[in-house]
Fold each of these.
Amino acid sequence: MTAAGPVTASSLSDRATRVAKSASEWADKVDREARFPAEALSALKAERLMGVMIPAEFGGENASLTEVADICVILGQACGSAAMVYAMHQIQIASLCGYAVGSGWHEDLLRRICDEQLLIGSATSEAGGIGGNLRNSICAIESEGDRIRLEKDATVISYGEASDAIMVTSRRHAEAAAGDQVSTVFMKDQYTLEKTSNWDTLGMRGTCSDGFIFRGEGSKEQILPRPFAEIAAQSMLAVSHLLWSALWYGIAVDAFNRSQSFVKAAARKNPGQTPPGALRVAEAANLLQQIKGNVVSGLKQFEQAKGNPDALNAMSFAVAMNNIKVGTSQSILTVINHCMLICGIMGYKNGTPYSLGRHLRDAHSAQLMISNDRILGNTSNMLLVNKPDPSLAG
């Protein structure tokens, strides 16, 4: 509930649209200066969208993953960096809601996220050979009584300096195996960040995911009660693939809208003649529909499996989520390339109503965020023992 009454999918969409208007006004500057999309975050907080997926009993709005994905689509059409920050934040929220309820400390955190509209960052990658393999850690929790300490050399921390708290993966203790991991939430006043690398990238420049040595101290109760392996398999990976795919789809939608406007303008100049780019607009629309169907199908499958560990742990579910991420990340580049060909030099140039450079550069991150090669390798291993479901009802 809000002061205005029950929250509906429509009201969430309206609120996200207002945020997108602000994000769009600053998107090119955020990209050009590689700075955090502070205006978009302020608008997200003003619209109270940070905790919408949190249960109402903790101050949230019980929003479904599908509703949050729709917000990501709307934001993706305005600013890829702002959409990615929001998606990454909601991935952490999904982990807290699904795997920390029952822990007093984390329930209080959920209330704070809603009350204060906190931004939760993520530190899963690690220097020293682990790299982007989030299912292994080198660093380990050090315990002394009820107190814990953690030092992690993180190759990237998502919007680290802008975060109000950071969820950090590590080994459970110094003697634990690399895959015996936990996830711990540290609040901003409990850690320091020593920058080791700058986030100077081709695209998604405003996410400001610099590298840091993270040093944090807190209490044992801040460790999520469920193993990270369980959280990753049943929530984090699927939610990541789906929300990322949603925002990537949004980026492609905006590219399509720009190219469609270009062709419409050309048609108005030459009535009775079909502009040369019209055929490519039809091709791009076809590809967009396929991407949308891919994401919608994945969201439906996730909502049906939610709360059922057997379904969430099934190889067929993991294969489906992997395929959505790989397929979407590849297809959006094809769509945006089509749009670039339609708009020609006006799409290639910056500062025009049809500029697509930012879209194309942001889209190139999609195949690298959890590398498609790594995902396809995992999928190929699962397909050695698992037969895909060929039914349309599956």
Note: The first strand starts at residue 120 and ends at 123.
Amino acid sequence: MSFTPLQFASGSRFLTTSRRATLAAGTFLLVSLAACDLGMTNNSNTAETFLAEAVSTTPVGFSMTENSYAGTENDSWRPMRRRHGGRGGPFGSAFGATGFMGGGLHADFAHGQGFRAGVARGPFGGDFNADSCTFSAASGKISCGPTTDRRGLTSERWVIYTDINGVAQSRPDSTTAKMQSHAEVSGTVTVRDSSTRIVRHVSDRTITGLQAGSTQRTINGTSNGTEKVNGFNAEGAFTADRTVADITEGLVIPVRTDGRSYPTAGKVTRRMTVAVTVAGGETETASRSEVLTYDGTATASLVITRNGTTKTCAVPLPVGRPVCE
């Protein structure tokens, strides 16, 4: 299986049992953007209202890749002419709080979780279930799949674990220093109203500093996805193209044993776009990007660009609402 690289980058994440439990427990961060006036207008302009709906969740299957999004998907999203964002969106509510687009930030990028002994413990621990996968000594890869789930999405992933000397390992242990992962997801999902969603997602991520005794972990990665929707709304048939992308650059998170940890360096760039055509009308487009920068202080910088309009915000760490200019 091969994929053509997309414009923003490439990347992917498979949710392990522990990650699903983490999400279910609500330990990911949903930071409020309600305090920021991003110029939402009170008219029915579809570029405004479609954006608010489209970026409230991620395309179906994107949570199966490695990225900064909280994993909130929606397999029944459709464009609606609303004045403000719906539940889960950057201007609406999601799980009782308002948040970043795509449902919020994944816990590892925010307040994280406590570190414990051993690899796969704590933020970016490289947790990965390789029980049904195959190790190749020649390539050093632990390969999984392709497998197809009940929705019709086909997924494939490989992981490489290496020690501090660069020697590949068939299983991670206390000497594992680095993890490289790659994932691909594709397929067509048909929902109850007979609308279809054709998706393709790719991701790559590298984590270093996993070995016992390391004082910090460093993360770099890219991910992107596309979703082409053919469906129906109150106005008739529509087509929609959503793209989502994520780039993690030089993210550093200290290893600590006295509580939760959060990044102290690095940058995360998140982008989403949508193009919608309803009932044979004109195509309307919208875009949003979020650039989150950590500088070692207790406040991260958040720059939001929405349809060409930019706002700069400060985000208190580990958990806090953005304060925007």
Note: The helical segments are 17-24, 46-54.
